[in-house]
Amino acid sequence: MYYIGIDFGGMSAKIGVVDKSGNILAKASSPTGADRSVSEIVKTVAELCFEQVQIAKLTMDEIEYIGIAMPGTIDIENALVHYSPNLQQFNNVSWKDELQKFVDKPIYIGNDANVAALGEAFAGATKNCQHSIMITLGTGVGGGIIIDRKIYGGYKYRGAELGHMVIKTDGALCGCGKRGCFEAYASAGALKRMTYKAVLLNKDSLIRDLVDNRLEMISGKTAFDASRAGDETGKKIVESYIKYLAEGLTNIITIFSPEVIAIGGGVSNEGDNLLLPLRAEMEKIAYGRSCKDPTRVVIAELGNDAGIIGAAMLGQEFIENV
Q1: Where are the domains of the chain?
Q2: How many CB atoms lie within 10 A of CB 235?
Q3: Do residues 59 and 53 lie in contact, with contact meaning Cβ atoms separated by under 8 Å?
Q4: β-pairing, 12-19 with 80-83?
Q5: How much is the pLDDT for 86?
Q6: Which of 168, 232, 313, 322 has an alpha carbon within 20 to 30 A of 179's alpha carbon?
Q7: Cβ atoms of residues 3 and 64 within 8 Å
Q8: Interatomic CA distance for residues 14 and 5, integer angstroms
Q9: Do 2-119+305-312 and 128-301 come out as alike in CATH topology?
Q10: How far apart are CA 47 and CA 34, in angstroms?
Q11: Confidence (pLDDT) at 321
Q12: CATH architecture, domain 128-301
């Protein structure tokens, strides 16, 4: 059996042909062209689907269904997008109705963070786990929850917005409009903001040299680079960031008790420079610290392929409510 997985975002659409074991046989990406109409965008996606099936040396008759990962609030029963903040022309649009104008296949859809978590559970860092969670540390903080190897989305599939739990009352303003969200302290965007503010207060920091005194070039990586080079300001930023990240992850573990939390997104590229101090900090504040077999925290394995593979697995019978 073969499936098509589509990871659809504000910047690009990534499309892959995937076998039942989660192997990608062919894949491609294309700019979303978010300024275009829904019909134009969907037509481009359909053309890419046909193209990749041909590259995989298959026919559309061999494709069982198409799965789609998309940011926003999704009605998975009707393949309907309720709200997608960066793709608002898709609000209240049914992918099933639109894509089936070009491709006569069943269509499944899920929130992109949930779908990425499914991809990791099927073929990545949380493979063979019954209960797992994936956290993505990018521009924001995304979360996907897998319980009994099924996506958990809560009532009307609006749950798993883990980045928007509050970890600091009256804290920093989040993009969602609330203050003190996990995302406002643990995202790459938050790390960038912390670094910028720290450099303004510590003008002798090595960070200025790392960005050629162009503070607009500060990224989520900059503080880690400075810390590795021995810069005290960089070290303090990283320590503060890791404390916030540990706080949020420990809360998540206290509620869900997953076997594994996989961390993805740009900040995860720090590998052990992130993981080792993070694990140590989490051990200090964990509820039930004496329990055997605690939740493991690891780096996600699939990278940009998680959404493609997870989308391709949306129609499998072990996924709840599909």
Answers
A1: 2-119+305-312, 128-301
A2: 16
A3: yes
A4: unpaired
A5: 73
A6: 232
A7: yes
A8: 8
A9: yes
A10: 17
A11: 43
A12: 2-Layer Sandwich (3.30)
Contacts of 82 (CB under 8 A, 6+ apart): 72, 73, 74, 75, 91, 92
**Residue 186 and residue 243: Cα distance in Å, rounded?**
9
- Pick from 252, 257, 259, 314: which is nearest to 114 by CA? 314
> What is the model's pTM?
0.89
Helices (H), 88-213: 95-99, 112-123, 183-186, 188-201, 207-210
Which positions of the chain have pLDDT values less than 50?
A: 318-322
Q: pLDDT value at position 25?
A: 98
Q: Is the Cβ–Cβ distance between 207 and 233 less than 8 Å?
A: yes
8 A C-beta contact, residue 258 and residue 144: no
* Overall fold of domain 2-119+305-312: Nucleotidyltransferase; domain 5 (3.30.420)
Q: Identity (one letter) of the amino acid at 245?
A: L
The residue with tokens 């052990």 is 272
Q: What is the pLDDT of residues 35-47, one digit of tens each?
A: 899 999 999 999 9
Query: What DSSP character marks residue 15?
Result: E
